[in-house]
Design a protein that fits this description.
The protein is mostly helical. Among the domains are: about 55 residues; about 70 residues, no CATH class. It is about 45% helix and about 0% strand. It contains ten helices and two strands; from the N terminus they run ααααααααααββ. A two-stranded antiparallel sheet has the order 1-2. The chain starts with a helix and ends in a 50-residue tail after the last strand. The relative contact order is 0.04.
Length: about 300
C-alpha cells in the first residue's frame, strides 16, 4: 500500500497534479489487515477441513502454522486441524516402523537401512526397539564375500541411516575403489577404520568464507577496461630533493608517472629505474640526457686512457 501511494504521488508530480495524502489510507489499511488475514486463513482452514482425509500433509501443516483465529469458530476449527495433523503424523510413523520391521524380518537389510533414513517427519525419533536390530543386521550383511555392488549400496544406505555409528561391518572386499569409498565413509561409520588400518579421521573443518575481492577505481581519464595495460606502462622514477628541471617527467620521490609507449623520459645518469639496472645506455631510455650525447661523453663510465 505504501509503495503504491509513493508511485501515485510520483506520477501526479510528473503531471503537475497535487498528490493524494496517504496517511489516512495507510491508517485504514493497518486497521483492516488483521481482519483480512483472518478471513484468508478461515477460507483455507474451511477448505482443508472439508477434504481432511485427502489433503496433503504439507498443506495441512501450513494451514495449522498460519492460524489466525479471532473468534470461537476459528479456534474450534484450529483444534480440529491440529488433531487431524497429529493423527496423520501418528499413522505415518506407525507405518514407517512397520515397514522397517517387516523388511528386517524378511532379511531385506538394504531396504530397511534406506527406510530408516526417510522418516515421515524430520524431528521423528528412531524407535529404540529397532536400533540394535538394524545395526547388527547391517553389519552382518557387509562381509568380505559380499559383491562389490551390493557392499557399496549397503555402505551408502548405512552412511545415511541414524544407526550408522553402531553399524560394524563384518569385512571389506578386496577392491581398490571399494576400499577408497570405505575410507571416505569411515568418519560416519567408525567401525570401518580398524578394518582398513586407518586411524579415526578428524571432523571436517568449516569451509572459510571467500575473500572479498578488492575493486579499485580506474585512473582519471582512463577507460576501466584498459587499467591493466596502463599499470604495465607505469615507471617509478625516484627524484632528488630539489625540484625537477623543466621538461623532466619526475615528481615526488617514489611517485608513479604514466609514460606512453615510445615516449622519451628524462632520467639522470646512474639513477635506478623500475625493473633494476641504471640508465646508462640509450637502449633503455632513448633520447634521455646522458645517452651517447656530447654533454656526458657518450656513457656513464669513462674509458681507460690508452698507453702512449
Amino acid at each position: 500500500m505504501r509503495r503504491a501511494l509513493a508511485e501515485e504521488r510520483a506520477a501526479a508530480t510528473a503531471q503537475g497534479l497535487p498528490g493524494a495524502a496517504g496517511d489516512a489510507i495507510v491508517t485504514l489499511a493497518e486497521q483492516l489487515l488483521p481482519a483480512v488475514r483472518e478471513a484468508t486463513w478461515l477460507d483455507r482452514a474451511e477448505a482443508a477441513e472439508r477434504i481432511i482425509d485427502e489433503i496433503s500433509l504439507r498443506d495441512l501443516r501450513a494451514a495449522v502454522a498460519g492460524a489466525a483465529p479471532r473468534d470461537e469458530h476459528g479456534r474450534e476449527l484450529l483444534r480440529q486441524l491440529r488433531q487431524a495433523l497429529e493423527q496423520r503424523i501418528t499413522r505415518l510413523r506407525e507405518a514407517w516402523e512397520r515397514d522397517m520391521t517387516h523388511a528386517l524380518e524378511e532379511n531385506r537389510v538394504l531396504q530397511a537401512l534406506r527406510l530408516s533414513a526417510r522418516p515421515p517427519e524430520p524431528n521423528t525419533r528412531f524407535p529404540a526397539a529397532l536400533v540394535n536390530r538394524l545395526a547388527e543386521a547391517g553389519g552382518a550383511a557387509m562381509t568380505a564375500t559380499t559383491s562389490v555392488e551390493r557392499w557399496l549400496a549397503l555402505l551408502e544406505a548405512a552412511s545415511a541411516s541414524p544407526v550408522r555409528r553402531l553399524v560394524k561391518p563384518a569385512g571389506v572386499p578386496e577392491d581398490a575403489g571399494l576400499r577408497k569409498a570405505a575410507a571416505q565413509a569411515a568418519g560416519r561409520i567408525p567401525a570401518l577404520a580398524p578394518l582398513l588400518g586407518l586411524s579415526m579421521p578428524p571432523p571436517p573443518r568449516p569451509i572459510p568464507p571467500p575473500a572479498a575481492r578488492r575493486v579499485t577505481a580506474p585512473l582519471p581519464g582512463q577507460v576501466p577496461g584498459r587499467r591493466r595495460q596502463a599499470e604495465q606502462e607505469m615507471v617509478v622514477l625516484p627524484t632528488r630533493p630539489q625540484e625537477s628541471a623543466p621538461g623532466q617527467a619526475g615528481g615526488p620521490e617514489g611517485e608513479a608517472v604514466a609514460v606512453q609507449p615510445g615516449e622519451p623520459v628524462a632520467v639522470q645518469p646512474g639513477e635506478p629505474v623500475a625493473g633494476g639496472g641504471s640508465t646508462g645506455s640509450a637502449r633503455e631510455h632513448p633520447g634521455a640526457p646522458g645517452a651517447d650525447s656530447p654533454a656526458t661523453g657518450g656513457s656513464d663510465q669513462a674509458e681507460p686512457p690508452h698507453p702512449a
